[in-house]
Structure prediction request, 520 residues.
Amino acid sequence: MCLVSSRRLFLAVYAVSGAAGLLYEVAWTRLLTLHMGHTVAAASTVLAAYMGGMALGAFLAGRAATGLDPRRALRVYAALEVLVAVCALLMPLALAAFRPLLALAYANGEAGAAFGCTRLLIGLVVLIVPTSAMGATFPVATRWQVQDAARAGGDAGGLYAANAGGACVGAIVAGFVLLPALGLWATTAVGCVLNVTAAAVALSVASRVSQPALADRPRQRPRRAVPLTRERARQAKVERAERGEAPEIGHLALAALALTVSGFAALVFEVAWTRILALAIGPTSYAFSLMLATFIGGLACGSAAGAWLAARVRRPASWLAGTLTLTGGAAFAALAVAGRLPLAVARAAADPQATFGQMVATEWQLVAPLLLPLSAALGAAMPLAIATGRRTLETVPRDVALIYAMNTLGAIAGSLAAGFLLIPRFGLHTTTVGAAALALLGAAIVILRGVRCRRPSVSLRQPVWQWPRCRCPGGILRSWRAARTSTRRTSGETTSIGPCAPEACSTTTMGPPGRCPFGA
Prediction:
């Protein structure tokens, strides 16, 4: 089997894994809330424990996957899928074992701090192993899928999009077919079958891919960061471009910060819109599944578009800032028209000829325009952040794991903050506005830190009309300050490094040396 065909097949495998993950999330949320109560706090606790395990697994696997060869990475991936299936089968036994402890914490009939801590502890213990294995699959799969550091954002983003697409299908099937017809246990069994199928196909790909195809993979060694002068750094960038190597990106921390903000805002929006839509179209399991499938479907479409962009754009940090800006704008727009939903649903329900299928279609037509732009912008942020923060081919799994883990930790904080603090204290409207403002603040930070110009150096002995003409904000003022600093340091002996194009103005993103982001 050739390498290209095997990578395409693995995308389908990872989509199947995403469908199984959503089946588990829906089933385990129902199962755990049966034991812990049907409150917003209980649902937020389960969601936080679920995502906490995924963040831990991704972080640990990212450090381990760096030293794996591609075939072994596929075998490790298959083992993780089997581990998830085994833990899913043992989940009812684990919950039954913790039932006396939960009853003891609620013995006085008050759901106080002791009961809340016990509930959180039980959720962490029963979910930590399967969710850690789920989270570990992403960096391990990235070790197999990414063939070139320059295309890390596109390849890893394609994995993320495939997984989100499978999750969207899983949410629809779980909410509308499996749970109503088969129940919790049969739904869990279907998820186990999907996990085992994904593991079997991954092992088959690992055994059938040709060894010469793997040998042709470009390998890059991680390099220790050494202090460089501006001129040496520019020269090193030019030399790497001449050799055909991907330029190294120094924005890993910025990408992780942007995805932390994105994850926090995403879960705040999800929790808030779950409550808003429950008030608008009814608190049914079908309404929740519809909202969840629409939100995840938007993530899948956005991540696919972001993967396409990440493989082609020169400055992914600029596009990352754009996705955060679009997130904030879409949230404000959706909130402005959300008040019309109850009347629209009431008019559709008043029709005596309306059937269940027609009502579901009407609700989706009302929900999709509100959630799809918002979730698509959030989904596009992941591949663009990977393209912004990735370094070399060998460090891609570690970089992806860090970005993914920070995104998941932000999602945990958003889930807990929305369920326990923001919505109870400030209400749905203020909570949504605050999350949108946070997304816009994150976009501003990315713009200021990731898309900026360096100061040009000039000589006071040059006429003013020969100074570098940089169209960057504050270019003339920065030129004057740079010239004064240069004069003081060299006692009047200054040198000019030329016009703005090559040296005086450059960016810290993936653009060519000397290209000004503002058009200079």
Observations:
- The radius of gyration is 26 Å.
